Amino acid sequence: MRAALIVHRVLAGADANLASIRKTLNQAADAGADLILFPEAALTGLTNNDDPAHDLPLGQAIPGPATQALSTDTRRRGIWLAIGLLERDGNRLYDSAVLIAPDGEIKLKYRRIQPQWHGRRADPSVYGQGAGLAKVGTPLGAFAFLICGDLFDDGLIRRARKLRPDWLLVPFARCFEDGAWNQARWDREELPAYAARVKLAGVTALLTNNLADKSMDMGAFGGAMAVTGDGTVIASLPLGRQGMLLVDL
User: Fold this and answer.
1) Which of 57, 80, 120, 229 is deepest in the core (most CB within 10 A)?
2) For residue 11, pLDDT beyond 80
3) Measured between alpha carbons, how far is residue 34 from residues 12, 80, 194 in Å?
4) Which residue(s) pair with 245 in the sheet?
5) Annotation: CATH topology of 2-248
6) Burial of 78 (0-12, 13-18, 19+ CB in 10 A)
7) CB 90 within 8 A of CB 74
8) Per-position b or e across 18-44, b if 16+ CB within 10 A of its CB
9) Domain ranges across the chain
10) pLDDT in tens, 16-71
11) 110 closest CA partner among 196, 36, 197, 40
């Protein structure tokens, strides 16, 4: 399997992001990717502020116009696509991810279980979490999702290990408090922590982060990596760089 891990620059507006995502998807397919992974909340970034009037319009129906457009691309290019997006279900908002097959069907939808994608005082009748952790079999192997902070939840790691997928997809949207793209801090503190969590899950994981200015997505600093189930980082993309990490697995 050739996987393309996309570090996506978050733009202002879902339409602009969708256009950029579709362009990059085609570039990854041209590079021979079988699976393409975009970050958490790739259509908007985590620009929610716990005000439902602001945040609910950020959400997309699943299925809906955005996933239908992406399904058109997966059918045309014959690829698997994994992408994170804020999901609106009526008057509820979730931090979700989908895996779309080469036939255009959504084969797996996952809602982030760990709640820190929103503030502690966010209205629980609006801001929701998932409960289920599932895998789906494909010709490329069995896939499961964790999103961002899910990876640092011991209970979810145990559930992921018990599930025994072949591949763990981890879209995330991460920044440092000061908005800096600090490679030295990442290499010293964060990368070993992420690798250790993957080792606990015991399954090869593909992880990719948004890239954004501080005014968008709190300055998400980018970066992508592939980590084996024993915690070995086999490929990575530096922080602060928009682009594509191709990994043959």
Assistant:
1) 80
2) yes
3) 29, 6, 25
4) 5
5) Nitrilase/N-carbamoyl-D-aminoacid amidohydrolase (3.60.110)
6) exposed
7) no
8) bebbeebbeebbeeebbbbbbbbbbbb
9) 2-248
10) 999 999 999 999 999 999 999 999 999 999 999 999 999 999 999 999 999 999 99
11) 40
**178-226 pLDDT, tens per residue?**
778 889 999 999 999 999 999 999 999 999 999 988 777 778 999 999 9
Q: Which residue has the tokens 């025994």?
A: 164
In total, the chain counts a number of residues equal to 249
Residue 2 identity (one-letter amino acid) = R
- Bridge-partner residues for 144, per DSSP? 135, 168
CB distance 114 to 160 below 8 Å:
no
| pTM of structure | 0.96
The alpha-helical segments, DSSP class H, found in the chain are 14-30, 52-55, 65-77, 154-163, 183-185, 191-201
